[in-house]
Write a structure and sequence with these properties.
Layout (H helix, E strand, L loop, with lengths): L10 H5 L9 H10 E6 L2 E4 L7 E7 L2 E7 L2 E8 L5 E3 L15 E4 L3 E7 H11 L1 H68 L4 H14 L7 H17 L5 H11 L3 H12 L3 H42 L7 E3 L1 H11 L8 E6 L7 E3 L1 H17 L4 E10 L2 E8 L29 H11 L3 E7 L2 E9 L6
Parallel strand pairs: 10-12
Antiparallel strand pairs: 1-8, 2-7, 3-6, 3-8, 4-5, 4-7, 9-11, 12-13, 13-15, 14-15
Helix pairs in contact: 2-3, 3-4, 4-5, 4-9, 5-9, 6-7, 7-9, 8-9, 9-10, 10-11, 11-12
Pfam families: cNMP_binding (PF00027), HATPase_c (PF02518)
Organism: Mycolicibacterium litorale
Keywords: Kinase, Transferase, Two-component regulatory system
C-alpha cells in the first residue's frame, strides 16, 4: 500500500529505531535503497491469510494487530512505538507461499517504512545467514510441534471440559427422569383418591387403561396416525362430542382407536351426548398428560444417553491403555459428528458383533475415527458412509468408506504425508491423516487407503495382542 506521499527513507532515522540497532552503514543503506517511506490513512494494512508481500515498520502513528478465531476478529495488540513492525516478518522462510499471520490496521494516519518481502528475505539470508538458519529451524519446528501437539492438547482440554459438563448434565437429567416417573405415580394416585370420594369406578377403570396405553410407545407411522385421527374425528363428531378433532389428535397420537371409542360409549359413561363429551374430555386429558410425561421421560433419557456417549468418546472414566469395544468407539464418534450428518448422508454400520475387545488407547483411536469420518464427509456432501468391522486372524480390520468422487491416482500415495492437503488454504493443515497414522502405528497396526470413483476406503488394522506403547 503506497500512495503519492511515498519517498526514500532516511538512514539517520532508521538508526534511531530499536529494530535496526547494530546494523552497519552499508546495511542501513541497502535497506533504505530498497524501501520507501509512505504515509497511509487509517484502515486495513494487511489481511490474515493473504500472500505476505510487504514488511511494515512504524515511524509515526499507531498499528493495531488482530487475528481471526472462528468468525471473530480478536484484537491482540495496539502500539504507537516507533520501530514496531508487522506484515511479512517471516520473509526469511524458504517458502514461496508465505501468508500474513495477522490482520494489521492503522488506527490513524501513519508514516511507515515499507519493504518488499522478497527484498527483506534476501537481505536477512545474505547479511545474517546463521541467524536466519536458526530462525527458520525455530519457526518450522514451532509450527510443526504446534500442529502435531495441538490436537492432543485439545483432546486433553476436551476431557477436562467434558468431565465437568457431563457431571453437571447427568445429575439434573437423572433427577428429571425420576421426577417424571414419580409424577406419573402421583397422578394415578390422584385418580384413585377421586374414586374413593364418589367418582364413577367404570370411568376410573377407563382412565387407568387409556393411561397404560398412552404410556407405551406406539409403532404407528405418521400416515397411519393421520388416518386414525381422521376416523376418530369423524366418529366423535358424529356422536356429538364437542371439540371432536382436538380430542381425535390426542387419541391418535396414543394409538387409541375406534374400538376404544365404542367401549367408552357402551360403558355407561356415554348414555347421552353431553355425558359422552364429558367422558371423552376427561379421558383425553389423561391421555395428553401421559403423552407429555412420556415425552419428558424420553427427552431426559436421551440427555443421559448423550452424556454417556460424550464420556465414551473422551474416555473420561478409563485408564489410558485398556480394552475397548471398537463398535462403542465408532458409535460415540458418530454421535459427536452427528451435526455433520446431513439429510443426504446415509450411515451404514456393517459390524461384526463377534469381535473381541481391542487393547488400545481408546481416546486416541477416537481421534483416528474422527479424522477418517470427517475426511469421508468432506469428500461426500451426500452419499453413503459405511463403517465396517471384521476380524482377520489376530487383528481387527476397520473400514471407513464413502461414495464420493474418489482420490486421484497421483494424489493417493501422498494423502498420509504431513502437511499435504487438497483443501483450500485455512481449511486444513494436512495433518489429520498423518496423526491418524502415528496413532495406529503406536498400536502396532496399519492404516492405508484404497480408492476408486464412488468407493474410497480407509482401512485400519489393529492387533488383538497389543501392549502399551
Amino acid at each position: 500500500m503506497v500512495d503519492e506521499s511515498a519517498h526514500a527513507c532516511d538512514i539517520d532515522e532508521l538508526r534511531e529505531l530499536f529494530l535496526f540497532e547494530g546494523l552497519t552503514a552499508d546495511q542501513l543503506q541497502r535497506l533504505c535503497g530498497n524501501g520507501t517511506v509512505t504515509t497511509l490513512p487509517a484502515g486495513l494494512l494487511c489481511r490474515q491469510g493473504d500472500p505476505a508481500t510487504h514488511f511494515y515498520v512504524l515511524l509515526d502513528g499507531e498499528i493495531l494487530l488482530s487475528k481471526y478465531t472462528g468468525n471473530r476478529d480478536i484484537e491482540m495488540w495496539t502500539t504507537s512505538q516507533r520501530g514496531a513492525y508487522c506484515g511479512a516478518w517471516s520473509a526469511f522462510l524458504p517458502d514461496d507461499d508465505v501468508r500474513y499471520e495477522n490482520n494489521a490496521s492503522l488506527t490513524r494516519p501513519s508514516r511507515l517504512l515499507v519493504l518488499d518481502a522478497i527484498t527483506l528475505g534476501d537481505f536477512l539470508r545474505t547479511e545474517f545467514p546463521m541467524a536466519t538458519h536458526l530462525l527458520v529451524g525455530h519457526t518450522q519446528g514451532r509450527l510443526h510441534a504446534g500442529r502435531i501437539l495441538g490436537p492432543h492438547e485439545r483432546l486433553v482440554q476436551l476431557g477436562q471440559l467434558t468431565a465437568g459438563l457431563t457431571h453437571e448434565l447427568n445429575n439434573p437429567a437423572a433427577a428429571a427422569v425420576r421426577a417424571a416417573s414419580a409424577l406419573r405415580s402421583r397422578i394415578t394416585e390422584t385418580r384413585h383418591r377421586r374414586a374413593e370420594v364418589g367418582t364413577d369406578t367404570t370411568l376410573l377403570e377407563l382412565h387407568d387403561r387409556v393411561a397404560e396405553i398412552a404410556a407405551k410407545p406406539t409403532d404407528l407411522t405418521t400416515a397411519q396416525k393421520s388416518h386414525l385421527e381422521e376416523a376418530l374425528g369423524e366418529w366423535l363428531d358424529a356422536h356429538g362430542v364437542s371439540d371432536a378433532w382436538d380430542h381425535a389428535a390426542t387419541f391418535a397420537e396414543a394409538g387409541i382407536d375406534i374400538d376404544w371409542m365404542e367401549r367408552i360409549s357402551a360403558s355407561g359413561c356415554g348414555d347421552t351426548p353431553a355425558a359422552l363429551s364429558a367422558a371423552v374430555r376427561s379421558l383425553s386429558s389423561t391421555v395428553e398428560t401421559e403423552l407429555l410425561l412420556t415425552e419428558i421421560g424420553d427427552a431426559t433419557k436421551r440427555i443421559s444417553v448423550l452424556v454417556d456417549q460424550v464420556k465414551q468418546y473422551s474416555q473420561l472414566d478409563r485408564a489410558p491403555f485398556d480394552v475397548a469395544d471398537i463398535h462403542e468407539l465408532l458409535d460415540s464418534t458418530l454421535a459427536m459428528l452427528s451435526h455433520r450428518l446431513g439429510p443426504g448422508v446415509t450411515v451404514v454400520r456393517d459390524f461384526d458383533h463377534g469381535l473381541p475387545a481391542v487393547p488400545c488407547y481408546a481416546a486416541e483411536l477416537n481421534q483416528v475415527w474422527t479424522n477418517l469420518i470427517n475426511n469421508a464427509l468432506d469428500a461426500m456432501p451426500s452419499g453413503v458412509l459405511t463403517l465396517r468391522t471384521r476380524r482377520e486372524r489376530d487383528t481387527v480390520r476397520v473400514e471407513v468408506c464413502d461414495t464420493g468422487t474418489g482420490i486421484p491416482d497421483d494424489v493417493l500415495p501422498r494423502v498420509f504425508d504431513p502437511f499435504f492437503t487438497t483443501k483450500p488454504f485455512g481449511e486444513g493443515a494436512g495433518l489429520g491423516l498423518d496423526i491418524a497414522v502415528r496413532i495406529v502405528d503406536r498400536h502396532g497396526g496399519s492404516l492405508w487407503a484404497e480408492s476408486a470413483p464412488g468407493d474410497t476406503r480407509f482401512v485400519t488394522t489393529l492387533p488383538l495382542t497389543a501392549e502399551p506403547g
